[in-house]
Amino acid sequence: MTTDTPADVRVTRAWSRILTWLAEYAPPSYAALKPGASDDEITALEATLGVNVPEELKALWRLSAGEDGVAGSGLMLGGRALMPLDAVIEVHQRQMRFQQQDAEGTIEDEGAVALWKPSWIPFCSFAPEDTLYGLYVDGETGEVCRWTEFREHRREYESLPAYLELMAVSLEAPLAAAGPEKPGMRAGALVWGPPAHEERGDPWVRHLGQAPPRRPAKTPGAIREALPGDDRAEFDERRDALDLADPEAVAAFRDQWWERAVQAQKKLEDEVASALGGNVLVHPGHHLAPEYEATLPPAVRHRPPSLDDIRTALRHESVRTRFDRDLMDAVPPHYPALLLRWWDIARLMADPRGDRAVRAVVNGRRTAD
Questions:
Q1: Nearest Cα to Cα of residue 350 among 309, 304, 318
Q2: Which candidate, 359, 304, 296, 361, places its Cα nearest to that of 333?
Q3: Nearest 5°: phi and psi at 281?
Q4: Cα(25)–Cα(108) distance, integer angstroms
Q5: How many CB atoms lie within 10 A of CB 362?
Q6: pTM of this prediction exceeds 0.70
Q7: For the segment 199-227, what is each residue's pLDDT rounded down to a tens digit?
Q8: 170 and 179 Cβ atoms separated by less than 8 Å
Q9: Residue 174 and residue 166 in contact, taking contact as beta carbons nearer than 8 Å
């Protein structure tokens, strides 16, 4: 995709969308990000490496200069980790030493393949503690390429903005995500999967676009509404017995019952999640009691909208034609998953960023091998 928007502006916009998603859906991953680097720190890095860092990479580092990872996993698309600046320096200098050593051992071989060029700036590693693999930005072409410990180099993405935009779209519309990497959760942290082998402990759960858990406001009315019916009579009795002239007693009552309401709501949400089983083919209304179904967010993705809703929301006739063709080709048991995917695309098209986001989904950012 071509655009007149400067690359550093595209990076800033895409990363801001990613930060918003992380703060809302995956707080542990959000907390693992390091603060942004100052211009002085980036200038010092350039002086140490003896190269100019591309503006789009500087824009990313000004917002987040690396991450610590969660449970050994990075949050970047593909399960990679955003490298701290000291790791960037260490990897670049190590690779340049390998390049120098190889050059000294090469005799009049003008066709020798470069192991590393000064303009290749690493920014993602295989994992927070594993820098033998990763991604770098080619400062000459702007492409994002992969390196491995076996001296392999391959173009992965058109550019850093393209990589981050694909990541943002994959998070915001997970059922319409292009590519094999799907966002999921493990212990509340973002983990891209599905994993090749399920680990013990907390299982990986694919993120399907559900709204984040809601918590009642700390007001008597909201707390009472969030409580199970059996607890409301006790709440009313203790509330009526309160000495409203004692602020500490009122605060203690409110905090105690808010905690009970949160726990009750969490239990209900867990029961809903268990009933859904993480399966996009489940129709909640057929399996949940009315009181459980009422707790689901209005825009929950598990319930597909109607065909008419989707066709109306798809703004371009050519896109509607593609939707109709997919629907005709679909096997009936797959209808719900198909509708969910197209509903994601329709919602994206309704957004001011929609046309660009849809192109990112439909066309992808990966190049053919």
A1: 309
A2: 304
A3: -85, -5
A4: 56
A5: 12
A6: no
A7: 666 788 888 765 555 566 777 887 887 78
A8: yes
A9: no
